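Page 47, continued from p. 46.
Same chain as before, 428 aa.
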Amino acid sequence: MRLRLPGRPAPEQDAGTQQVGSRQDVADTTEAAVTKAPAPPHGRGPKMQAAARALAIASAQFLLVAAAVVVLFYVLGRLWSILLPIVLGLLIATVLWPLTRFLRNHRWPPALAAATVLLAFIAAFVGIIAAIAPSVADQVTELADQATEGLQDVQEWLSGPPFNLREGQIDDAVDSTIDSIQGNAQNIAGYALTGVSAVGNSLINLVLALVLVFFFLKDGPRWVPWLSAQTGPKAARHVAALSYKTWSTLSEFIRQQALVGFIDAFFIGLGLWIFDVPLVLPLAVLTFFGAFIPIIGAFVAGAFAVLIALVDEGFTVALIIFGIVLLVQQIEGNVLQPIIQGRGFNLHAAVVILAVTAGSSLAGIIGAFLAVPIAALIAVMYRYARDELDDKSPEIADDGTRATVVGDDSGTAVQHEKVAPAAADQRD
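Result:
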C-alpha cells in the first residue's frame, strides 16, 4: 500500500488531472502569502544609510547654530547696558538727522548743526512734559475722588441682586486685602526700591543715549567708510549696502510710526475732547508714543482712555470712547498702514505680536519698544542674504546706484556709482 502525501494527486488520476491540481495548490498558496507592501530592492539599505548620515549631519549643524544663537544672546545680555544707549541713540538720531543734514548742507559746521538740533529736540520734549504736568496734577485728584465714588457704587451693586453680599462680607474682603498688603509690605518696599533703581538706570541710559546722539549726528557720515575699510574689497560693498539699508529701515520705521501715532492721537483726542473726558492732552500724548509699540501700545493707550472715561463720565460715554478707539484702530490697520508703508518692510501682524511679546518678556517696556525695529532689521538682513544667494545683486539701490569704497592709505570714502541697466534688471 502506497502512502499519498498531502497536496499530491492520487495515482489513479491521469497526467492532465495531476497538472491541474498542482497549479491550483500553488495558486492557493500564493494568494495566502501575498502582501501589498512592495518587496525591498537591493538599493534600499544604502539609501537608508545615506539618509541617516544626512540627518545626523543636519542635526549636528542645527545644534551648532542653536548653540551659537544661545551664546550670542548671552553675550548681548551681558553687554545690554552698553548696547541699550547705542540703540536708543541710533533711533533718536534717525529722527534728528534730516534737520541736521539740512543745516549741514547750508554750510553749518557739523558740531554746531548737531548741537543745535539736539538742544532743540530736548527743549521740545521738556516743553511737552511741562505743558502736560499741570493738567495732570489738577485732574488726578478729581479722578481719584470719582474713583472712590465709583468703588462705593460697586459696593452698593454687590450688596444687591444677584450677588446679595452682606456689608460685613465686603468689609471682610477689604480687610483681608489690606492685611495681605501689610503682610507683604517688605516685598512691596523691595519692589518699589527696584523700581526706583530702574528709573535711575533709565535716566542714566537716556543721558548717555543723548550724548551718543550728538556724536552720531556730528560724525555719522564717516561711519560707513570706516566700517567698510575694515573689510576686504569684496565684502566692502555689501557692508556699505547693508549699512545704508538698515539706516533707511530705522528711519522709515520712525517716520511711519510717528505719522500713524499722530493721526491716532489726533482723532482719539478729538473724541475725548468732544465728550468732555479729562486728561485729553496726556492721553493723546500717550496714544502718540504708544504707536511706537505696534498693536500692543495702541491697545494699552486705548484701554487707559476708556478707563478714564468710565470713571469720569460713566458707562455710556466709556462705550462711545471704546467705539471711537476701535474705529480709529481699524482705519489705521486696514487703510493707513498699507498706504503709508507702501513697499516698505511690511511685517505680518503675527510676527509683530510675537516680536513685541518676546521683547517685553526679555526687557520690559524698552524691549517692547525695540522689538519691531530689531525684527525689521533681521528681515532686511535675511532678504539681503536671500537675494545674494539668488544672484539678484541686492547691493544695488532703488535708484540704480551701488555704493563702492575708494581710497588709499590717506583715507577711505564711499561713492555711489551708476550701475548698468542689465545689472539693475538682474536685481529685480
